[in-house]
Structure formats: C-alpha cells, structure tokens
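Shift notes (night). Ran DUF2196 domain-containing protein while the centrifuge was going.
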Amino acid sequence: MSIDRPTADELRQGITVEIVQGDQDVESEEAEPIIGEVATIYGDEPEGAQVELKSGVVGHVQSVVSDR
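Came back to this:
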C-alpha cells in the first residue's frame, strides 16, 4: 500500500500537518500522531518530508491537516 505523503515542495510555513518522529513506528496503531504548525522545512526523505514544528518537535510529515 502506497501512502501519498506531501513533498517538501508542497509544504509551507504555518501549514498544519501530522507528523511522526523518527523513533516512532509509522505502522504502529498505538502511535499517537503529532499535529502542529510547520516552522522549518528540511527536505524530502524516504519516510516523508522532514519538518520542525513551531513546538520544536522534528519529524516526518504523514499528512496535511485540513482547516476545521
């Protein structure tokens, strides 16, 4: 199954995303996703675009969270 993750080029500062940290198991059902606003975009990696959130958490983007 292929997951359609956004690329670094599709992201921008201030957008709200769902990320997983490098030490989290992406396939684990128990892992709580981290949701926050993008502060810095580092670039694309096989696990997804690596970003730092405004909260300081660094991880790989799994999806963009739509405005509610």
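The two ends are 28 Å apart (CA to CA). Residues 8-64 form one domain.
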